[in-house]
Each structure stands twice: as C-alpha cells, then as structure tokens.
C-alpha cells in the first residue's frame, strides 16, 4: 500500500499490543476494542491463553486477532507491523508492554548475554517498533489522523536498586528513548506517552506466576484495593490515547493508594487537618 493510500485508509483503526498477557496488555486490548479499535494482541508464548483473550473480546462485541511473537528476534517486530498494516488496518495506537525483568542478580552473576537481553526487550524493542511504525503514522498525521505510542514502564526507569543492573539500564533507556521520540515526532502528530507503573499489578501472567501459590496471600496483605487493577490501568491508557494535541500527557506514574515510599515504611505522622493551616503533628515525647 502506498503512502497516499495508507493516509486515506478507511479500514478500522488498529490497537497493537506487544506484550499481551492477561494483565495490562489483555485489559488494554479489551478496552480499546470496546472503544471501536480492532485489537491485535502479540505475545511470546501460550497460544491457548492468547486465543482465550481474543475470544473474550469478540464475545463482548469487539474485534481482535492474536499472534505469537518473539520480540527479541531481529525482524520480528518489523514483520508484524508490515503484516498488520497490510492485512488488517492502520495502526492508530500501539502499546509496548514487554517487561525486561531478569530477576535480582548481583553484577558478577549477570552474564553479558543476560544483560543484553534485558536491553533488547526493554529498550531496543521500543526503538524497533517506532522505527517500523512511525513513518506510516507521520503520513496519516498529514491528513489529520494523529497516532499514539503508549509504553508501559516500571519503577526502575527512575530509580535503580541493587540487583537490577539489566532492568534499570533497560527501563532508564526506555524512558529517555520515549522523551527523544516525543521531541522529534510530537510536532509531527504522534503522541508518545511513558507510563511508570510504580507498584504491584494484579496480573496472573506476571506477578501471579512469580509468586505462585503465595499470590492470593500477597494481595490480601496489601489490603482493599492495595494492588493495582490492570483494567483500571487500561482506562488510563484509553484516556491518554484520546487526549487532544493541546493537552498531551507524556509521562504519568501509577500506584495503589496504599503504597508508600521506602522512607515512609513506618507509620506517617498524623496531620492536623482541622487547623486553618494544617501542620504535621509529630509523635508525642
């Protein structure tokens, strides 16, 4: 399809999800399908789980398709973008939702290839998606059809911790790459939003697998609504994709209401909220 034909494409707009598990990715796909997009869900494995997500979207009245994708392989993301644009429809919004967590590893327990894998999934994959997708989006923007790239990120994008050499480097690079892409392509009609998910997510494919039979106990320990609902995150993504150009959000952080920073692990001082000028009422001595 030529650039002119692509710009005038009348097919249903596509919401492409790279990293479509049962948590954030699957819920985002369902939300955008409900909003009129055709959702394309891509994940590395579990074809049966992928088919189930697609069926759930279709049963709710939306349209969707699924594909297995190893995003670390050269050419895989590029081939997917080409295939979707050719066979399904124009990618109006994409979500890069792949993690790069390889677990806590000391520096000397982090082989070069393991560090590089985190970078390939966490940073290079975003670059490859934008490189393949943005030229088409720019052409469509000339006709007034603005596009969005949403990038799920993590606490490690803004703070490195011991044992997180690969993950922090990948996510920090992801964040800077999003800022750079925005600086170049925002004026050309592409909205790039970096979303820091700063807390636990009720996702069976990620945190659920990590914790195993301890998952339910972990959620209970966090209290009511103490773990982020991926469907609520999907609503945030939907809002970001619908923002007008004069009010684009380029970075947002999300966390449960009960989460406290490490320096607030102890009970916080009470606040005297009845005073005209509220003050902190520190512990009595």
SSE blueprint:
Layout (H helix, E strand, L loop, with lengths): L2 H5 L6 E5 L5 H11 L3 E6 L3 H13 L3 E6 L7 H12 L3 E6 L15 H30 L5 E8 L10 H21 L4 E8 L9 H5 L3 H7 L8 H13 L8 E4 L15 E3 L6 E3 L4
Parallel strand pairs: 1-2, 1-4, 2-3, 4-5, 5-6, 6-7
Antiparallel strand pairs: 8-9
SSE series? HEHEHEHEHEHEHHHEEE
Q: Structural class of the helices, strands and pairings?
A: alpha/beta
Largest sheet, order of strands side by side? 3-2-1-4-5-6-7
Task: Tell me the helix content.
Answer: 40-55%
Number of domains: 1
How large a portion of the residues is in β-strands, by DSSP E? 15-25%
Remind me, CATH topology? Rossmann fold
* End-to-end C-alpha gap: 75 Å
* Tertiary shape: globular
Main β-sheet description: 7 strands, parallel
**Can you tell me the CATH class?**
Alpha Beta
Number of helices: 9
As residue ranges, the low-confidence spans are: 267-285
Average pLDDT over all residues: 85
Number of strands: 9
CATH superfamily: NAD(P)-binding Rossmann-like Domain
CATH arch. level architecture: 3-Layer(aba) Sandwich
Structural Rg: 20 Å
Description:
With 285 residues, the protein is of the alpha/beta class. The N and C termini lie far apart (75 Å). 41% of the residues lie in helices and 17% in strands. The protein has one domain: Rossmann fold (3-Layer(aba) Sandwich), CATH 3.40.50.720. The strands form 2 sheets. Strands 3-2-1-4-5-6-7 form a 7-stranded parallel sheet, sandwiched between helices. It has a two-stranded antiparallel ribbon with strand order 8-9. It contains 9 helices and 9 strands. Helix 2 packs across helix 9. The chain has helices spanning 3-7, 24-34, 47-59, 76-87, 112-141, 165-185, 207-211, 215-221, 230-242, and strands spanning 14-18, 38-43, 63-68, 91-96, 147-154, 190-197, 251-254, 270-272, 279-281.
